Amino acid sequence: MKTARRPISFAHFWQLFVLLAAIVAGGRAVAAEQTQVERGEYLARAGDCMGCHTAKGGAPFAGGLRIDTPFGYMLSSNITPDLETGIGRDSSADFYRALHDGVNRHGKDMYPAMPYDFYTKLTRADVDAIYAYLRTVKPVHNAVEVNHLRFPFDLRWTMGAWRELYFTEGTYRPDPTKTAAWNRGAYLVEGPGHCSDCHSPRNRLGGIEKDRQYSGADVDGWFALALAPDIANGLGAWSPEDIARYLKTGVTPGKDNALGPMADFIRDSTSHLTDADRLAMAGYLKSIPPDSRLRTGRVDPDATKRRGAQLYSDNCGSCHQALGRGMAGVFPPLTGNPEVLAADPSNLLQIIDRGIPARLGYGPMPGFQTQLTDQQVAEIANYVRSSWGNKAPPNATSARVATLRAGN
After folding, report:
1. Upstream peptide bond of 60 is cis (omega within 30 degrees of 0)
2. Is there a single domain that holds both residue 48 and residue 162?
3. What's the chain's average pLDDT?
4. Both 153 and 249 in a single domain?
5. Fewer beta carbons below 10 Å: N end or C end of the chain?
6. What does pTM read for this prediction?
7. How many domains does the chain have?
8. From start to end of 116-254, where are the E strands?
9. Within this chain, do residues 328 and 354 fall inside the same structural domain, yes or no?
10. Burial of 1: CB neighbours in 10 Å, binned 0-12, 13-18, 19+
11. Is residue 347 part of a domain?
12. Do 385 and 280 lie in a common domain?
């Protein structure tokens, strides 16, 4: 015996219609959540394209930013869609070849100042998205003479040898044993973010020392801090949330404030990423194996520590307090501070010599460039680096300070 069907009432019909409409609209919203151009803009932010391809006071992406290297300097290229001086004549295939293979539209090897050895890991879809976005940027006629390297490095053919030694082409392949979040973080850190480009030391030929990746390196007179999870010099004491917050705001209370090129990178790049992507990057960075050499080889404080203590008391103690504990929300602590503990003292010397303006809730710090000698600045730095449980090597020298001051 069949059960009679109940007729669908108007109310039920309307509810069903609304539900179906919501599903369709939701699907459309998801599909239209990010266009190719919007995705390209996001990825360009992740790769800090504007930061490197914009000169100080110049038009965005029009090039001209000076990039110093041990072999001379280069000026970043114009990547606006200008037909004569930019990439307006580059096809999407040309653009992909540049990022993936490090070869320009004219078939010449590119200089690794443009980190194609990292961008090679980007998928073709992501490179095409960046290309689509750059096509929407305002064209700027700005002819840039890129190459200002010394002989023989000014000859592009010399890059052939560099590529053989240090470049490996290949799109990032997810690790099936890892989570989706870990793989996303690895893709961003090793690809567009090119974190190892700045945070790894290089040899005399400009190649990254692969066995010392993420152990910190000199960048434009600053020291890019170690990112390996070493408890003293690296990220061992940082949680993924600490790192993600730092990438968003440039400050993690009680740990570090971004300075120099890193502050610029956060402003132009990682502060624009999603919370999920920043946390994915943090999770990947926390998984990098610690480098045991960061825990060994430190030398004892030098014989000038007593003078350093007096100089600290006279010039620094009123703000940073005894034992370097600082004042919460006013002056940062010096104990356990990554800028103090870095293997290289450049950041600390920059701070002592030139000061820091008021920012991120902290008061300004005056510079001592005119009050202290080269030797005195070095002695303060060495005292701070080797006191109150800080165990960084007291390797600041008056010669290092003199070089810093000569670069003003």
Report:
1. no
2. yes
3. 83
4. no
5. N
6. 0.70
7. 3
8. 147-149, 217-219, 222-224, 251-252
9. yes
10. exposed
11. yes
12. no
